[in-house]
Amino acid sequence: MSISKTNRLSLVEQVVSQIETLIESGEWEIGSQIPPEMDLIKQFDVSRNTLREAIRSLVYAGLLITKQGKGTFVKSSSALGVAFQRRIQQSSLFETLEVRHALERQGAQLAAIRRDQEDIEKLRFHITACQKAAEAKDIKAYEEADIQLHKSIMCSSHNALLIDLYEHMEDSVHDSIHQLAGMSSDATLHLSIHCNLVEAIIDQDVNRAIDSVNGYIAQFKKFID
Amino acid sequence: MSISKTNRLSLVEQVVSQIETLIESGEWEIGSQIPPEMDLIKQFDVSRNTLREAIRSLVYAGLLITKQGKGTFVKSSSALGVAFQRRIQQSSLFETLEVRHALERQGAQLAAIRRDQEDIEKLRFHITACQKAAEAKDIKAYEEADIQLHKSIMCSSHNALLIDLYEHMEDSVHDSIHQLAGMSSDATLHLSIHCNLVEAIIDQDVNRAIDSVNGYIAQFKKFID
DNA sequence: ACCTCAAATTTGTAGGATGATTGGTTCATT
DNA sequence: AATGAACCAATCATCCTACAAATTTGAGGT
Fold first, then answer.
1. What are phi and psi of A43, to 5 degrees?
2. Which residues of B touch A107 (CB under 8 A)?
3. How do residues A99-143 score in pLDDT, each as one tens digit?
4. Which of A119, B15, B171, B188 has its Cβ near the most Cβ atoms within 10 Å?
5. For residue range B50-69, what is the model confidence (pLDDT) as tens digits?
6. Inside any domain, residue A5
């Protein structure tokens, strides 16, 4: 019986791992061009095939992007976003909204428990931005402020994994939401719920925070139908 | 302005796409061995390098797994799991538990709303298995039954994305949970909460289902401290 | 029946050759 | 001098052959 399933890593996996480290450590900055194949072959001391299989893996995962004739560039430091995007595209907006509901409810609950002074200031800033955009009837600005508000709420949860999941999901979901944005009939209701949510988080009223999230998600579900 | 960013797909990307389709459509069943490289070279009419880069991409994404000397096998139909697991491994058990809380609470809520007769039968089967394992003091069997019960609950939500996320999370969390399993002092309490949860779902009592989830997650958090 | 070892199968790695794309340079024409 | 065509260099894309390493299979001998 083997203690480790696959104790020995293949050369390709080793190269992939090294490149991942280079990206995550920031040694290869996002957006920058990485050395050409021939240089990397010498650097890692592997054949062209091995290197290319490693590069191609990371391209598929969304960490790198290659452009023929130009070079290979660092695109992202996390593979989660691309994978999420692929998966969400296969899901209905309804399903995605329910998962978003799960994350936002938890985020609001934790935010109400753990928000610190810095969080409160950010929340107040963004809810004010929402109000101003609503008064100015600037739908585009309102959407942007709304997204920033939601991200601030999630950040107040102080759970990095939760924040990460939400951010990657947000990227993918935003486009879909945008389509429905025009029909925001009662933005005032939408805004009032958000105000209520922010107040609940600041007051550390967990139940009211959760109820607020349930409220605007329910409102959203009506739109979709 | 380019209508399509990269209108032309590379050969590797085309092969990847075709293989993805074969997997998602079920033509290549999960767990089955795919044709050897030489056959696929003829099938897709590409060189070995091109094919291998495509295969390697899907291996990295977690859809395939290659074993030297044996062959290549279909591991999963979703790339989300691997990316998710990679991210989870960088998180603390506490953070992961809170995200699990988010998913399980939502799963329980939706299950209480949408569970059908088939779901009820599965739930009853697995809760009975839990009880039997508890009576027999068989910790290992209890853990397995517990996992199956939780998966059944999630499946009752009838949200494929939610189920997908939970399943992949479950895999990563299970090991960590296993470490703490020995100290399950009050398994009876744990079991009673689960019974309560299943009853609530069957009775379509949404609030009681949510409270049950909150209950055993809170119990879990105590263990971690 | 059991063991040994060679052959076949399959993936892993290496290295070379050529094509395709991009960006820049050179140079002749206007 | 400005323009544009032709050329060239860098880089990735694809294909090819060859050999190595791991696994399974089966023939052959004990």
1. -60, -45
2. 102
3. 999 999 999 999 999 999 999 999 999 999 988 888 887 777 888
4. B15
5. 999 999 999 999 999 999 99
6. no
